[in-house]
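Hi team, as promised in this morning's meeting, here are the two structures we talked about. I've kept the exact order from the run log so nobody has to guess. The first one is mostly here for context; it's the second one we should focus on when we meet again. Sequence first, then the predicted structure tokens.
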Amino acid sequence: MDLVKSTMSSTGISSVDRLTASLRNLLERSNELKPDGGIEPALTSTNFGGDLETVIRRAEGGVTVNAQDHYAALETACRNIFYDLLASTSIEETSFSQIWNLLDIVSLLSDIPLCEPGLVFWLVEELLDSQTIDGCRVVFDYLDSRRERLTAKHFKQKQLIILRACNELLRRLSRAEDTVFCGRVFIFMFQSFPLGDRSSVNLRGEYHVENVTVFDKTSSKQAIISDSFDGAMDVDQAPDATRKETTGSGDLTIDAASAGQSGTPQSPENAAKTVKIDAPEDKIQEQEPDTEALYPIFWSLQDVFSQPTRLFETSTFESFKSGLDLTFRKFKAVQQHQQSRGTSKLPSAAHRPLKRKRAGGESEPQDDLAGSFNPRYLTSRDLFDLEISDLAFRRHILVQGLILVDFLLSLTPKAKKKLENTSNKSVLYSYTLPEEEFKWATAMRVEIATYLQQGQEGKFYYRMVDTVLSRDKNWMHWKAEGCPLIKQPPIASESFIESQKGAQRTSAPKRIRPTPMGSLDLSFLLNTGDEGQAHGLEILKKPTRYALPRVEDFKASIMEDNLDLDTAKTEAEKESIGVAKASKMWRTLRLASKNRLNLFDKLEDANDLTPLFDRPPVSQGDDLDQAKKEGVESEQPVEKENVAVNGVQDGAVTEPAPPAIEVT
């Protein structure tokens, strides 16, 4: 009825009627362009010949009106068509594509601009209000496909409408059942709004103190015993009849008041347990905390998680340390029990029942994704044992503890010094973490990090958590600085052209130099002889360049070096001559070691190599070829003597002479 009334209220106005007729003609043309319907493709001004403004101006009949009246008339015409289509078609029908075409036309008109820039999102907001959750998913298909186009122009006039429409939709959605859709809405807002927008920034650092965790502070056993013993007798308890629990930081005495049970009498069963245990500290630490006593302490931690500034009080901080230590010990004990049972699967997967497949043929990855949803946990005492046996629950609580421990570590003097010059003082606290509490927080963070890395996918899980927390620290620093603009100024055209030219010069092919840097000078190969013929290569082929020299070749050079040493005047000159002489003597020794090793015994002075230069004597039976190899040239020709050595004469084998025979 409201749609009909709003439509009838605008009838009879000539400008509205003419604009309505023009818009309907544009819709008919769009139907011809998209006969199959659907969201894609998006309509552009070229589909209408680029004459949208001409069509709208012609509809005004040549009457000059101000912009405000024109905007009002065009908005009324758009709403009339929108309400008619919305009342007559369903989102599942193919004809509903006229709604998408109308939104495209309104978007084109707002870019010119011929209507209010936010009109398209006003219509989208009303469209979301009129649809079910499944229909809203289809609407978001349209928004996701047109996001860049819808937010390209006049975003300041549209941002509040986008924020209001998305927040209203999020209030309708369930965080447990519609988690994926909630993520789509958040992603749309994150991609639409600039990175440095302050719309979702808590500048004053306010905490969600309204989030109060309600739990049962009275044990069921104590309530039954209290009713049975009511008025019968008074139970006298010894002053020392308290339960002592040991944590990593020391002993914790837990009585009825500290466990959140003030005003309730203690049962005889619990009284029997309140015996002071005198045992070594290491054995006390290994004891598993009692689940019944841990229940109120565990859920009372949520009050500190929702308001961390309560830790500035010493009593609250001590109780929080004790409670977190007890909780962590209980979690480790539960995990050890599960590992001792030899379960190969995760505890959360072992207790999770088989999920039946939803209608519509959803794939298996969606079922796996649905298994990771975290609803609001129940605080019933009867469910506490089952909850702490779930790995996902333990990780959820420890991540909360990790966030709070990081908050405490940001209050150290070193961390506060980095933020002392920031402008937003509302997120800076005067409280400074003491040294003892700093050591506890550091140790607790290491223990929680080690625990979260255990399991099949523990390494990946902790890496994800650590990445999120590290990025959150950067956002906190940005917020403390007053949220400066996260925007890079555009590059000047001159700088871009200059950098482009530099890149071209760098990547251009290089001209080869005639003599590259570090190369040898080979011009000696072009040296010509007397007749003008090049003989540089022939010089390189001389045997003197590759044949080993004789030992005698170094004799004259070493004698010259000895003479130069005697006549040298400066120390630098003596040093250079000594180095050259040492090199020649070393080469002489190397050459002489091959065929004159027997002469090394005659060397009495290391600087006198004269015995090596003497010609070695040629003994009888020595091979003359060997003497020629050594370069020994005799002054007179060597005569061969016919000397028989072991029956060998001139290389021929001779037989010995027969013995003489005596004749008698």
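And here is the second protein, the one for discussion:
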Amino acid sequence: MLDLGTSFLASVSRDPEALAVVDGGVRLTYAGWYRAISSVVEGLDALGLRPGDRLVTILQNRWEAATLHWACQFAGVVIVPLNWRATADELDHALADSDARALVYEPVAAATVAASPAAAVLPRLAVGAAAGPGETAFADVVARDAAPARAAASAEALSLMLYTSGTTARPKGVPRRHRAERAAALAHVAQNLYRRGERTLGVMPLYHTMGVRSLLAMSLIGGTFVCLPRFSVAEALRLVAAERVTNLYLVPTLYHDLVHHAAFDATDVSSVRKLGFAGASMTDGLLARLTEAFRPDLFVNHYGSSEVYTFTIDQDAPRKPGSAGRAGLNTMVRVVPFGARDPAATAHPGEEGEIAVIAGGDEAFEGYWRRPEADAKALRGGWYFTGDTGYADADGDLFVTGRVDDMIITGGENVSPVEIESCLSLHPAVSEVAVVGLPDERWGKVVAAFIKRRGPVQPAELVAYCRAAGLPSHKLPRSTVFVAEIPKSPVGKLLRRRLVSGDYELEAASAFPSHTSVEALT
């Protein structure tokens, strides 16, 4: 397996004049981008960074962030990209935990960096702004003449370290090697049937596995990475039309926002022939809406994680709504009965359990950064236990039903929130929906539906709709709450914990002629 620096050199050799990256007025071919990357490699060396050192970045999806990613691959420096919304405390943790040797940031994160004691003592690169004391301006680095960069890392070297979202504890570092990163990118190309010269919208953040995969995959096929630094529906639609984007790889939330925007129907999206989604389940309603709106040649449901990029793939998502398909090219997947420690204890078809993935696959990590307790929990008998729940149907297709921690146990029955969400999403008055279990003295937990409406509807109507769709009584919502927005993470993941804790905003009383929170009799 090639290291990623050599892999990029191969791309330059194949397609030197192909358009590689677009960001506003910046348009670079592979040959031109390689020259810029070479300058940054020399700049990293001037900062004192050596192969194996960690470089933390806190940047949006701008061409400088993509350039730094590639420069690190050439230099053998391990890039550690963070959410640009990170707090000073979160930045301090990542800098200390990763043993960072330098930091790169842009103006949007300037206040965070200024408030970080750990950042103050590190060499810093300033992107998009003048350099302050102890800093170097990225613009000065990239403008310098430099010798063509050579690959300084092997395929066995670490490429990057992503940090998990840390919903209940400090985020965990997920170190990944060059060979695993390239294997994941190759699988992404194959599983999405990408052709030479594809163009993708670079909107999924480069601190997220989906964003990194889009960046690497485009390089393998001489494709174009069209940067969208911060998600804006209007700007995304403009770029799709103006740059003739051929494929989209987004979380369901962003798809929802695109097709429900006022400008969507007037936008030429005919160049988009391939859709892919990951990061969360897609409701049946949104799946149908996207199929109608784009009529894509390929519609891929990709199920995976930062730890093991691909778990399963379904290349025809509308064929069997809710199905995550079968194991990807580089892995094996099985459903293990709840509570089983032995990964060989496979659940029967239709039996719900925890989803496990072989830990020795080409796309897999080898353990968390300095977190042996997390390794002990997740890695057992050569398999990675994902913490996700699901079942395989009689055809062998996997259905993901939620997280182990999200399962609603009501009256002794296990209820998956995803099933109820998919049902409610098909109601014409429902724009978005999230289902959680709320504490109840009698039942343990009761099913509660949080609805963002697009039209007037009463809780009793929604319960009747679910009953007519075939949901049994213990799965019917006992409480319905109409909210202004469904809380989500920066990459569009549903934050159920905020609904459970009451951290949400009720729908405005004037929105529709009904109460905002109603108990529905079942």
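Starting points for discussion:
Confidence is low (pLDDT under 50) at residues 514-522.
The two ends are 58 Å apart (CA to CA).
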